[in-house]
């Protein structure tokens, strides 16, 4: 009797292996599909280059590399010329004060954000935070994996693509105000999260197992940016043809709330 995809997932739930790797990763066997899930960090330190030889061997054996988006194609996610009202008209006084104080701490002028959408301000602040921790885009894990895949003519599969990601950000309410508020509220938690990921990729995995990374999103944002996307990615991964795949997504998608491996185990 032919089984439904849901029945297959239920029977394969025990085939999720949190194998011992020097980097954040786990293996999933979905019938005749083998997935090596990698918890990527989108910006990295110089010491993260080159990638671990064992990971590169995983990529060499894979039929394709799967990423959220091919970030080697260039282009900027930032919007030009939206000409939005100044921040003083869009933020309450308390939030504007918090943003101004953070900009002072980062030695930035809050005026540079005055007419930008809130989601763009949040991303720019997060990028500043990462850079101050020594992280650079060219050392990001997914970027390095993409470079290695393209050097060997390995097929690359996008789960979303840059245009979809930008459309998602633009769809956030109030031009992304919830993302900016969460960025301000969880500023120090996010810094600790980045430091955890840096250490993990430099052969110092978290001592507490199983790993549970703290979320830095409100419930509403978590649904939009994590849970809903993970559910969509799950469907895409289930539809893959037989083969071996390296799947690199942000580490929170593997170890945070409503994580992707949990969706495979739950059905």
Q: In words, what does this structure look like?
A:
This protein is globular. A 6-stranded mixed sheet has the order 1-2-3-6-4-5. It is α/β, with parallel strands linked by helices and 267 residues long. Helix 5 packs parallel to helix 8 (177-185). The protein starts with a helix and ends with a helix. Strand 2 and strand 3 (33-40) form a beta hairpin. The longest helix is centred in the C-terminal third of the chain and has 20 residues, at 219-238. It is built from 12 helices and 6 strands.
How many strands in all? 6
**Largest β-sheet summary:** 6 strands, mixed
Assess the beta-strand content as a share of residues.
5-15%
Total number of helices: 12
Structural category is alpha/beta
Q: What is the straight-line distance between the termini? A: 19 Å
Q: Give the H and E element order.
A: HEEEHEHHHHEHHHHEHH
Summarize the entry for a quick read:
This protein has about 270 residues and is an alpha/beta fold.
Question: Strands, helices and their partners?
Answer:
Elements: H1 5-12, E1 16-17, E2 25-30, E3 33-40, H2 53-61, E4 64-67, H3 87-90, H4 93-105, H5 118-132, H6 141-151, E5 156-158, H7 162-170, H8 177-185, H9 187-201, H10 219-238, E6 243-250, H11 252-255, H12 260-266
Parallel strand pairs: 3-6, 4-5, 4-6
Antiparallel strand pairs: 1-2, 2-3
Helix pairs in contact: 5-8
Q: What labels would you give this structure?
A:
12% strand, alpha/beta, 12 helices, globular, 6-stranded mixed β-sheet, 267 residues, single chain
């Amino acid at each position: 009797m032919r089984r439904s995809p849901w029945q297959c997932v239920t029977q394969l739930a025990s085939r999720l292996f949190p194998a011992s790797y020097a980097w954040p990763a786990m293996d999933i066997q979905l019938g005749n599909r083998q997935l090596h899930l990698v918890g990527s960090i989108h910006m990295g330190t110089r010491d993260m280059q080159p990638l671990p030889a064992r990971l590169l061997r995983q990529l060499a054996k894979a039929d394709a590399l799967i990423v959220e988006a091919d970030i080697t194609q260039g282009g900027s996610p930032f919007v030009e010329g939206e000409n939005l009202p100044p921040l003083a008209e869009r933020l309450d006084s308390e939030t504007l004060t918090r943003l101004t104080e953070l900009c002072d701490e980062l030695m930035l002028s809050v005026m540079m954000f005055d007419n930008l959408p809130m989601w763009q301000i949040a991303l720019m602040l997060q990028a500043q935070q990462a850079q101050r921790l020594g992280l650079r885009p060219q050392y990001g894990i997914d970027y390095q994996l993409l470079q290695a895949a393209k050097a060997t003519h390995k097929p690359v599969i996008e789960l979303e693509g840059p245009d979809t990601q930008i459309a998602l950000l633009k769809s956030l309410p109030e031009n992304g105000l919830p993302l900016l508020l969460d960025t301000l509220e969880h500023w120090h938690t996010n810094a600790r999260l980045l430091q955890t990921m840096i250490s993990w990729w430099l052969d110092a995995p978290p001592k507490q197992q199983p790993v549970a990374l703290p979320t830095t999103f409100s419930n509403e944002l978590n649904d939009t940016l994590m849970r809903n996307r993970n559910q969509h990615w799950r469907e895409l991964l289930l539809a893959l043809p037989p083969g071996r795949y390296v799947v690199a997504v942000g580490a929170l998608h593997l170890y945070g709330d409503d994580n992707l491996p949990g969706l495979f185990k739950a059905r």
